Amino acid sequence: MEILFTNTIPVNIEQPKPASKFIPEWYKNTRPYIESHTEKNLGMRTIKRCIPVLDSLTSGYIITCPADVMVTLKDGPDGQKYQFFQWSACNLIDFHPIEQAPQHPMAKPYQYPKFNNPWSIKTPKGYSTLFVQPFHRDSIFTILPGIVDTDMYTAPVNFPFVLNDPNFEGLISQGTPIAQVIPIKRDKWSMAIGNNKDYEAQDKVSSKLQTRFFDRYKTMFWGKKEYT
Questions:
Q1: What is the set of domains in the chain, with CATH numbers?
Q2: CB under 8 Å to 65, separation ≥6 — which residues?
């Protein structure tokens, strides 16, 4: 399968890359075992050994901020201080009025800023794209997640966001990850509730896990995902 990214602006900008190229420093610096514990003495493992966390960090692709964005606080006409945005290139920031989503749980008392994404995305037939805040990463902002049927809609998808600190002033640097892009297959789903037979099947999985000390999920059940 192939996901196609096309730059739609006449500026040479950093290309999207697999999320595995953006492993955060906190994760790299985390030891696999607590303190002096090791696999040899059955030490307590850390998040570094959790495959579901690794999968979330490395799934899909990362789009980065194509230019610097400076945020400063300025006085508004009502006497309140508001965050003011300036950007160096790419017509990078636009806004949505707060009235478009006044009760959203991330809403702030001002309009929603939006990253104007320069990248068009096309996926194979039957595949959509999930756009989310890059997982497990500290960030100045949080984008509002969404799903787009990018096999048919190939115009650039923009990213409304909120600043996590309403008093933040400073720089959102060029190259900052702004969105994690994960292709997903569309299927028709229905829900069911398991019975005793399903419980017994699950219990066999739990029992199998007990036969090893280490890397049980990784070696018995995990399927490696590849994004290149």
A1: 4-220 (2.70.40.10)
A2: 92, 115, 172, 173, 174, 175, 176, 177, 178
pTM of this prediction?
0.91
Q: Determine the Cα–Cα distance for residues 100 and 89; give it in Å rounded to an integer.
A: 27
One-letter identity of residue 222: W
Structure-block tokens of residue 186: 């569309």
Distance of CA 163 to the CA centre of its chain: 16
- pLDDT per residue over 90-148, tens digit each? 899 999 998 999 999 988 878 899 999 999 999 999 999 999 999 999 999 999 999 99
Closest C-alpha to 113, from 159, 82, 77, 68:
159
Name residue 49's amino acid: R
Per DSSP, the residues of 95-153 read EE-GGGSTT-TT--SSPEEEE---EEEE--TTEEEEEEPPTT---SEEEPPEEE-TTT-
HEC readout, 175-218 = CCEEEEEEEEECCCCCCCCCCHHHHHHHHHHHHHHCCCCCCHHH
* pLDDT at residue 66, as a whole number: 96
